[in-house]
Design the sequence.
């Protein structure tokens, strides 16, 4: 009896504590563009985009199980779709954003349906090729994407309700609010019944199938949701930086997302988001030695695997719970 | 022109097959798609290059040096890293990819992305049936063929070869009958590293080799040969008749089509 009241008490204080932490973090993000330099604001935007990418990556790989290496490709398809729709087809940003998200979602479903029939490493390696293939397509379709010259002249989001998004601050808040909305939606998704189905597939796919879950449908769903979110972030990226280059979406990006998710801890949603923040920050701090950045990061990744494969969240859990 | 392309395709395919053979051994026995071979191969190629140009070793000793470096690296990775996570495939795969990127970035840092030209061991070319083939390419083909035969006999006839086959069929039972799985894994990794090191030509060889392994199917030496040469031909012909920009994209197309038709690869036994 006493134990339960104690537990309830701690959960209440921890609820308040979490609320305070979230409020402080939100406040920090709101004042960032007001008090810091443009450079810091750019870095924070990049961190926000990566955070959502890593979070959406977690839906398939962390919650549902299959490992993929092509998240950067979906991000790139979203960015180029949105940029080309506004540049060539005269769409407004507000239309191009959902259209590019939906396009990537459907495209991922199309790719995912045959590919997810492959088991284990076959699937992971195939996604690796797929990511590289998309990069080659973007690089070589010079007429459409200007290939290695990069796509220039992308418009800023049109102002809406009197809010101007062409300034740095305006587009910062746009991406910030949008990221919050997506993270909350992803959180609701993983806490919902669908999220539990995802976890049941991860824990034991045969058993999930045996109790009547259409596992291939849910795997494709998780894959497409993650990809669709990456597409949306790609669209935001395109209209924030207004310059696209194929190398932004080469395998390095996919690999960075995997590293971020892993550093934070797969299957926790908040872990990959924090991981993305840490990785982006340290990458920026190491800007003085660009050739060393990747070496340090891969060494760090191997170290994370050796020390605690469950990442930061696993480490926290181990320290907190005293579990070995 | 057509015949020239076919010859080129076969020779490139032979080097894909050579590297894929090592990967196939590693993958089918230890269940690790060992991406790090892509980095090992770069280091081995440089070891060969420096031992030929700086130390003035003859070509074959340079090749041997490259094989030693590659084999040792693969062996060390297995002992110190992959062995830790046996049965945790996802971590092994991540580690393999991390090693691949680490080694390639290190290579770029040490030797800059500027390509170095491997001094050919043999000069000149021969004209066969109206098309020219350089002696160097014939040498590559011969080395590939000899190594295939050697590996085949090693796997079929030696004691450790039998142990390797046994553990690829059933790891647990192999352990029960007294086969030391650690030794088998180390040997397999060392052989894989040596094979990758000999295949020092072509672009993006690692990805192609992984495609070849999947195309050919696990545990099949013949599948690797057919898959490798088939891919070499598709690329060589496709880059001329379809588009050169997509030369490295064909591998993906071929892979998807074959996997849809044969989910276990062309000659897969597993």
Sequence:
């Amino acid at each position: 009896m006493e134990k339960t009241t104690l537990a309830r008490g701690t959960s209440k204080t921890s609820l308040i504590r979490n609320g305070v932490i979230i409020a402080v973090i939100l406040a920090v993000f709101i004042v960032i563009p007001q008090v810091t330099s443009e450079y810091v604001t750019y870095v924070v935007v990049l961190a926000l985009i990566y955070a959502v990418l890593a979070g959406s990556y977690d839906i398939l790989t962390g919650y549902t199980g299959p490992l993929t290496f092509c998240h950067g490709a979906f991000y790139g398809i979203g960015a180029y779709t949105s940029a080309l729709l506004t540049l060539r087809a005269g769409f407004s940003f507000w239309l191009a954003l959902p259209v590019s998200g939906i396009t990537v979602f459907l495209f991922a479903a199309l790719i995912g349906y045959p590919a997810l029939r492959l088991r284990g490493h076959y699937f992971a390696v195939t996604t690796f090729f797929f990511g590289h293939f998309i990069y080659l397509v973007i690089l070589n379709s010079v007429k459409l994407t200007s290939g290695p010259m990069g796509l220039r002249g992308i418009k800023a989001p049109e102002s809406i309700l009197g809010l101007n998004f062409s300034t740095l601050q305006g587009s910062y808040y746009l991406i910030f609010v949008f990221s919050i909305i997506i993270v909350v939606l992803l959180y609701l998704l993983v806490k919902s019944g669908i999220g539990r189905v995802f976890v049941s597939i991860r824990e034991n796919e045969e058993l999930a199938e045996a109790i009547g879950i259409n596992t291939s449908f849910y795997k494709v769903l998780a894959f497409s949701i993650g990809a669709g979110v990456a597409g949306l972030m790609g669209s935001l990226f395109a209209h924030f930086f207004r310059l696209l280059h194929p190398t932004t979406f080469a395998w390095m990006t996919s690999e960075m997302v995997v590293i971020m998710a892993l550093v934070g801890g797969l299957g926790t949603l908040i872990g990959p988001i924090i991981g993305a923040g840490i990785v982006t920050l340290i990458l920026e701090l190491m800007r003085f030695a660009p050739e060393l950045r990747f070496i340090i990061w891969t060494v760090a990744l191997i170290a994370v695997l050796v020390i605690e494969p469950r990442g930061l969240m696993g480490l926290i859990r181990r320290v907190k719970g005293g579990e070995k | 022109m057509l015949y020239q392309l076919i010859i080129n395709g076969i020779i490139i395919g032979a080097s894909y097959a050579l590297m894929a053979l090592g990967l196939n051994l590693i993958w089918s026995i230890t269940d690790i798609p060992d991406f790090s071979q892509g980095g090992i191969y770069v280091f081995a190629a440089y070891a060969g290059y420096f031992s030929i140009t700086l130390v003035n070793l003859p070509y074959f000793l340079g090749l041997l040096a490259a094989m030693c470096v590659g084999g040792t690296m693969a062996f060390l990775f297995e002992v110190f890293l992959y062995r830790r996570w046996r049965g945790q495939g996802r971590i092994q795969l991540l580690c393999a990819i991390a090693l691949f990127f680490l080694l390639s970035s290190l290579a770029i840092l040490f030797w800059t992305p500027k390509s170095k030209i491997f001094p050919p061991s043999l000069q000149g070319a021969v004209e066969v049936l109206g098309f020219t083939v350089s002696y160097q390419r014939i040498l590559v083909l011969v080395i590939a063929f000899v190594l295939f035969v050697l590996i085949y006999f090693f796997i079929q006839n030696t004691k450790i070869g039998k142990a390797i086959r046994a553990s690829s069929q059933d790891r647990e039972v192999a352990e029960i009958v007294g086969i030391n799985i650690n030794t088998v894994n180390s040997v397999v990794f060392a052989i894989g590293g040596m094979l990758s090191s000999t295949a020092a030509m072509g672009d993006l060889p690692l990805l192609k080799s992984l495609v070849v392994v999947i195309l050919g199917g696990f545990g099949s030496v013949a599948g690797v040969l057919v898959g490798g040469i088939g891919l070499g031909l598709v690329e060589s012909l496709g880059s001329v008749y379809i588009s050169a920009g997509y030369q490295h994209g064909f591998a993906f197309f071929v892979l998807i089509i074959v996997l849809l038709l044969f989910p276990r690869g062309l000659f897969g036994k597993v």
About this structure: Chain B has a mean pLDDT of 76. The beta strands of chain B are 125-128, 131-134.
